[in-house]
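I had to read the description of the data format several times before I understood it. The format is easy to grasp once an entry is in front of the reader. For illustration, here is how one protein appears when written out as sequence plus structure tokens:
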Amino acid sequence: DRHFSESEQRRLSADVDWWRQREAALAALGCCADDFVDLIEGRIEDGDQPLQLNVSNVLTNYVIPGIEMRDCPLLCGTCLWLMARLTPILPKEYREKLILISLQYISSEQDMFVRVCVVRALF
């Protein structure tokens, strides 16, 4: 949460690079997504406690808003990629949202980077 609150403070202070810290945090989460999925699904023993990752909170507060930031293509693309990486543990409504957003972006005049991320997210 620290990285997200710091990036939000930077955004509110009109820092044009506010999104970079948020994108880096989401990219780091995406790089570990397989482990999160395995831990949440109970395929890896994690000592006494199963991993408690509130996927809906992450998606609602950070990923979906990032996808909607069309003026930050790298952030948008990273959010699409992360959402796709978390697909096995996504609630149904988020899987449907991923498909709808992806179809909307692939058929639009969106930045090429975002369209490549959409294709990666769908396949």
Remarks:
- The chain has one domain: 2-122.
- Residues 85 and 106 are 18 Å apart (CA to CA).
- The first helix runs from residue 2 to 12.
- The helical segments are 2-12, 18-31, 33-40, 55-67, 73-85, 92-106, 112-122.
